[in-house]
């Protein structure tokens, strides 16, 4: 297929392209990314998890004005820590407390203040392009309405908060080309309220969020239940094509291209391509686990590409359980069940994905496939990107039964291509490439 005649048209001009069998291998981490990965410290991650556990409970409905216990104490400590990281960044990182009053709902019996703690590292080249990473700092026990009992929440989700805080610390002094947002959100256990508020604010502002990751329950590869320990695998849940019902939940209707290629799935493929050595990202083509949900869903509902990192196998005997000892067995979501080296590896996966996304061109926009004519070739069109180091584009394609891209056509800085392959037989996509060889996620075309 890669040797067949290819016609390339850019406006009225003809450009030359190079067809390649197989997609290019992911580039090795550049020196800056290698330094970033080395600086992620399991000891700091352990200190964050233990500090969050020390607040006793971080239940959304717990006390907010006690300096030592409850969600308010956790909020203030996270805010101060992130401000300390930002101080080292010469003003490029800003930190805010994003508060709102959540009205009465099934899991919120009285109007309650919920606060997200958000650190934003402004991009140096295309700051309007945004990538978000979250962990939720609220916790719970068996009774989701019990705001008094100790709810240590080490794995769920001090582990995810430790990831985003360590990423913020390491990246605060860097200059990503796009904007990176590190958010500790609250209200997750009561109904994703913190992330829902955050995502809606972005949506109302017309923010160009091109990727979002939730880190939720990323504490260990060992379920402590007698099954095989899997310390180098992390699951990444990615939705396929959003259904109209999913979009309607938030009153949002956004068209996406491809029968099998929603933007979140392209984000998952990108993360897999740039995973660091020593980690295996197991991409699961589902929105989330059965009966469960995390903060990425708030962003999916607004039409943003979003995915959820979580450990390979959960232990439900510890997660959300009251702290207790029965027959010599300790229960509860305690730090003793976390593997801090594992959390650091998950943080490196996040770092590789975020840095690679931020340094690459943005995902191509306005990609369409011409379906107005009966032909045995395929015409694709897209909007030219504005990045100053944009080198060109690649058209990729695969068999409709194949999970990953199989072939690549390398192009220059053009916005139209006609390929002597039938659009009826394969899936197509387009991605941008810069002068350093950084590649964006693929954009699947919409029918014109």
From TrEMBL:
Which compartments does it reside in? Secreted
The record's section on InterPro entries has:
FN3_dom, FN3_sf, Ig-like_fold, M28_fam, Peptidase_M28, TAT_signal
Q: Does the keyword Ion transport apply?
A: no
- According to the UniProt record, where is the region Disordered? 248-267
Signal peptide residues on this chain, from the entry's feature table: 1-27
For this UniProt record, the keywords arranged alphabetically read as follows:
Carbohydrate metabolism, Glycosidase, Hydrolase, Metalloprotease, Polysaccharide degradation, Protease, Secreted, Signal
| Superkingdom of this protein's organism | Bacteria
User: Is rRNA processing a UniProt keyword of this protein?
Assistant: no
Boundaries of every Fibronectin type-III domain copy: 360-448
Q: Return the PANTHER family for the record.
A: METALLOPEPTIDASE M28 FAMILY MEMBER (PTHR12147), PEPTIDASE M28 DOMAIN-CONTAINING PROTEIN (PTHR12147:SF26)
* Protein name per its UniProtKB record: M20/M25/M40 family metallo-hydrolase
> Organism source for this protein?
Actinoplanes flavus
């Amino acid at each position: 297929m890669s040797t067949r005649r290819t016609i390339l048209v850019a406006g009225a001009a003809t450009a030359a392209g190079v067809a390649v069998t197989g997609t290019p291998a992911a580039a090795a981490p550049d020196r800056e990314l290698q330094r970033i990965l080395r600086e992620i410290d399991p000891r700091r991650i352990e200190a964050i998890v233990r500090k969050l556990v020390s607040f006793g409970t971080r239940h959304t409905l717990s006390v907010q004005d006690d300096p030592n216990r409850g969600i308010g104490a956790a909020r203030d400590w996270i805010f101060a820590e992130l401000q300390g990281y930002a101080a080292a960044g010469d003003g490029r990182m800003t930190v805010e407390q994003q508060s709102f009053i959540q009205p009465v709902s099934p899991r919120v019996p009285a109007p309650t203040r919920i606060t997200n703690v958000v650190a934003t590292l402004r991009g140096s080249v295309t700051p309007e392009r945004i990538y978000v990473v979250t962990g939720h700092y609220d916790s719970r026990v068996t009774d989701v309405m019990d705001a008094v009992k100790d709810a240590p929440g080490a794995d769920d989700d001090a582990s995810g908060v430790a990831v985003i805080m360590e990423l913020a610390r390491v990246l605060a002094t860097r200059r990503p080309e796009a904007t990176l947002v590190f958010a500790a959100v609250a209200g997750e256990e009561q109904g994703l309220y913190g992330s829902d508020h955050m995502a809606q604010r972005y949506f109302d502002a017309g923010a160009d969020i091109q990727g979002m990751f939730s880190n939720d329950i990323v504490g260990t590869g060992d379920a402590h239940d007698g099954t095989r320990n899997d310390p180098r695998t992390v699951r990444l849940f990615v939705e396929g094509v959003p259904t109209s019902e999913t979009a309607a939940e938030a009153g949002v209707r956004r068209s996406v291209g491809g029968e099998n290629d929603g933007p979140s799935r392209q984000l998952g493929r990108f993360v897999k391509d740039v995973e660091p050595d020593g980690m295996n990202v197991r991409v699961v083509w589902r929105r989330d686990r059965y009966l469960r949900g995390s903060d990425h869903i708030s962003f999916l509902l607004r039409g943003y590409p979003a995915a959820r990192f979580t450990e390979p196998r959960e232990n439900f005997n510890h997660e959300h359980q009251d702290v207790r000892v029965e027959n010599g067995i300790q229960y509860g979501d305690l730090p003793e069940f976390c593997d801090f080296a594992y959390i650091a590896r998950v943080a490196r996966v996040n770092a590789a994905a975020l840095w690679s996304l931020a340094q690459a061109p943005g995902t191509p926009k306005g990609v369409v496939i011409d379906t107005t004519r009966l032909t045995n070739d395929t015409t694709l069109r897209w909007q030219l990107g504005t990045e100053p180091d944009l080198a060109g584009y690649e058209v990729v394609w695969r068999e409709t039964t194949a999970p990953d891209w199989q072939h690549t056509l390398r192009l220059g800085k053009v916005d139209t291509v006609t390929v002597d392959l039938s659009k009826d037989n394969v899936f197509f996509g387009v991605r941008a490439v810069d002068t350093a060889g950084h590649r964006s996620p693929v954009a699947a075309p919409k029918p014109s």
